[in-house]
Amino acid sequence: MMGWIKTLQLWELNPHTWLSIYLQACAENNSAPSEDISSFLPWAMDKERLEYFRKPIAR
Known about the structure:
Layout (H helix, E strand, L loop, with lengths): L1 H9 L4 H14 L18 H8 L5
């Protein structure tokens, strides 16, 4: 787990936001990860998605 947290930090992404969105996507996929996880890989995200994941999670 530390590997992905450090990767998110290197990309200046909020790990809490990323994990919340990722787990929600898994829940919506019958509790399984999507076969295509590219939308969650920082190097595959477009600029707008990167900015979204850099913000603190909305409460």
